[in-house]
Amino acid sequence: MSTPYSPTVMDHFSNPRNVGELPDANAVGEVGNPKCGDIMKMYLKIEDDVISDVRFQTFGCGAAIATSSIATEMIRGKKIDEALQLTNRAVVEALEGLPPIKLHCSVLAEQAVKSAISDYYRRQGIDPVPIVGALDDECDDHCSCGA
């Protein structure tokens, strides 16, 4: 049986890294839309501007789980400004590709990281928009759910 997914995607789906809540998180971001079925929640522990720990919870397909999992590995130990450079394209490349119909999952992973970092800045009393940028809550650019 052939699969449209790379061995890396299958590995991160079957054995996701960093799953679960992070009780001492000081940054939490949630993105997605119940209409399209993919919801990602990212928990960060940030110390001295470095992401010292990261966890995720994802309700969605295998690609959504895999993109969340690899995104956590890509930002752990990074400074905030480095984590903000994470792109959906980098997530796809790290997973050795995704089928076109699943690319929206990589966008959600990028947005989940940025949403959590925005939350961190808000908790510090800092407006995150000049640093992180505005976050798009709609699916129209990356999803076919029509929301």
Brief summary of the model shown:
By secondary structure, the protein is an alpha+beta fold. It is 39% helix and 18% strand.
Topology record:
Blueprint (H helix, E strand, L loop, with lengths): L6 H8 L12 E7 L4 E10 L2 E10 L2 H14 L4 H4 L4 H7 L8 H21 L5 H4 L15
Antiparallel strand pairs: 1-2, 2-3
Helix pairs in contact: 1-2, 2-5, 4-5
Q: Mind explaining what this structure looks like?
A:
With 147 residues, the protein is of the alpha+beta class. The protein has a single domain, classed as Sufe protein. Chain: A (Alpha-Beta Complex), CATH 3.90.1010.10. 39% of the residues lie in helices and 18% in strands. The chain has helices at residues 7-14, 62-75, 80-83, 88-94, 103-123, 129-132; strands at residues 27-33, 38-47, 50-59. Strands 1-2-3 form a 3-stranded antiparallel beta sheet. A hairpin with a 2-residue loop joins strand 2 (38-47) and strand 3. The model is unreliable at 142-147 (pLDDT under 50).
> Span between N and C termini?
34 Å
Whole-number radius of gyration? 14 Å
What strand order characterises the main sheet? 1-2-3
CATH architectural designation: Alpha-Beta Complex
Shape: globular
**SS field, number of helical segments:** 6
Largest sheet: 3 strands, antiparallel
User: Helicity, in percent?
Assistant: 25-40%
Overall number of strands: 3
CATH class descriptor? Alpha Beta
What's the mean pLDDT score? Answer: 91
Q: Keywords for this structure?
A:
147 residues, alpha+beta, three-stranded antiparallel beta sheet, 6 helices, globular, disordered C terminus
